Amino acid sequence: MTLFTLLDHASVLIFALTGALVASRAQLDVVGFLFFACLTAVGGGTLRDVLLDRNPVFWIANPAYLGVASAAALVVFFTAHRFESRYRVLLWLDACALAVAVAAGSGVAQALGHPAPVVVVMGMITGCMGGLMRDVVSNEVPLILKQGELYVTCAFAGSAATVLAAQVTPSPGLAAIGCALVTFGLRAGSLAFGWRLPVYKSRPPR
Amino acid sequence: MTLFTLLDHASVLIFALTGALVASRAQLDVVGFLFFACLTAVGGGTLRDVLLDRNPVFWIANPAYLGVASAAALVVFFTAHRFESRYRVLLWLDACALAVAVAAGSGVAQALGHPAPVVVVMGMITGCMGGLMRDVVSNEVPLILKQGELYVTCAFAGSAATVLAAQVTPSPGLAAIGCALVTFGLRAGSLAFGWRLPVYKSRPPR
Amino acid sequence: MTLFTLLDHASVLIFALTGALVASRAQLDVVGFLFFACLTAVGGGTLRDVLLDRNPVFWIANPAYLGVASAAALVVFFTAHRFESRYRVLLWLDACALAVAVAAGSGVAQALGHPAPVVVVMGMITGCMGGLMRDVVSNEVPLILKQGELYVTCAFAGSAATVLAAQVTPSPGLAAIGCALVTFGLRAGSLAFGWRLPVYKSRPPR
């Protein structure tokens, strides 16, 4: 499981940075930075582990994850004022974290032998739920609700890539790389070029 | 457990329709419809299974549930624009889903031999929590908070009916039907005729 | 585990009072009071038990907790109109509940032999998450987000006190008292005297 441990570490680190950036937008104190960094960093993976009944949960088995997230929070606390546009940094870091977390979540579910739909959903949960908790708790509009942007779609496509890769290669490493590239590519295309799916066209909601 | 499997399927289908309707109100793309349909459909039952330590969680054991929810999402995506008043459809579908889910939740807890208070709470959790997650994530005002309407009360009464039915009939099927009728009846009375409990009368909150 | 059972009972009782007060601010009916009382009362401890894989969850093992929370809800329903300033009562009760719940959460994790970072996080989760669920579901601004107040910080300091106390005394009771005093003292100082940590200084968020 070394590969997935590495992916978990990477997604914890990057999601923690996004959580701390949200704390900076809410002008919290240093413990607030730590709280949001840890919530965002381990939220999605924790939900994955609880649903798959993996015991203990990954950061309880190895509290070093909490150290990584806390270090990221402190770095942001002391440096965030240097960034010209924190929200853009947040969006792009979130895209990286999404890609890595989807790969970690779908990869773990696949390694445990779950069927394809469960693999896809676990990738989406691990990728999207940490950021969703961050946004709901901090009263930001959830990124997954932003109209005219791909978000859940990227997680869905990346998880599907994990499933497809397993058909053509026995290597979970290659599958994880493919998944992360698909996820990040779609999200980056949406952020940079406005890629989107047709949106539900309706008369104004009633 | 065939009965409860059937109830779970029915509540997944109807809650998925409500989730997709909320996605249509938020004007999301098709993957957003799938996301909200699945979240609403399996949210309450998942919480029930995690709390009762039923492993695996029902939709991981049988991913066909996700297929049902996804099909419901697609149907709504392509047909919702035909409805004159989506919010009223949403309210009534939610009432049906509530009734079925309360019956499923309280019935499962009772079949597992839990005491009456746990049976009641599990019915309420299974019935109310999927819709609550849908509303919190989508930034709608939670239905359970609507003043002057019965909502949690219906789930409470339905769950209590399950407990009482077990005293007079050995049939879980009859208990489930009784529970669903009580829940839907109260909710329908509240929607159609404005039935309500006395509300806490206060000076303006300070 | 008698000590932690007692602490759990106390935190359930006091958090239930705060949940019912929030229900009174939202002008809900009596079942709404019961719902918010129970959600707030058992939310944090439930999350602790699920994450630590303690089975069954404490209020499923002993439904008397639900009775305590329900009784608290009824008391508030019939007496809250007598309070001049419900929000101040809410803040101070929440401070008491926070102190007791942090002691219960960190103490249980320590008794189970978890390492220090897990003990600290479990104290914070048990203390903060019930109130956070209450605030998110009821659309109040989460107390943990209030600028210029100590909240998560108090839970953090209290949990750390539990860990430190274990170095100097073998008695979990003394550790729990120390933890509760530190948590309540900091929170009370913040409420009464405006104690705070330096807040992240930034240009307006972008």
What is the oligomeric state here? homotrimer
The total strand number of chain A stands at 0
Which pair of chains forms the biggest interface, and how many residues does each contribute?
A-B, 33 and 35 residues
Based on CA atoms alone, the radius of gyration of chain A comes out at: 17 Å
Largest sheet: number of strands, sense, barrel closure of chain A: none
Structural class of chain A: mainly alpha
End-to-end separation of chain A in angstroms reads 50 Å
Query: Low-confidence runs of chain A (pLDDT<50, min 5 residues)?
Result: none
Mean pLDDT of chain A: 88
Shape of chain A: globular
Give the DSSP E fraction of chain A (strand runs of 2 or more residues): under 5%
Number of helices of chain A: 8
SSE order of chain A, one letter for each helix or strand: HHHHHHHH
Compute the number of structural domains of chain A. 1
Helix fraction of chain A, binned, reads over 70%
Commentary on this structure:
- Three copies of one chain form a homotrimer.
- Chain A is an all-alpha fold and 206 residues long.
- The model of chain A has no long low-confidence stretch (mean pLDDT 88).
- Chain A has helices at residues 2-25, 30-51, 58-61, 64-79, 86-111, 116-137, 152-168, 172-193.
- Helix content of chain A is 74%, strand content 0%.
- Chain A has one domain.
- Chains A and B meet through helix 6 and helix 7 of A and helix 1, helix 2 and helix 4 of B.
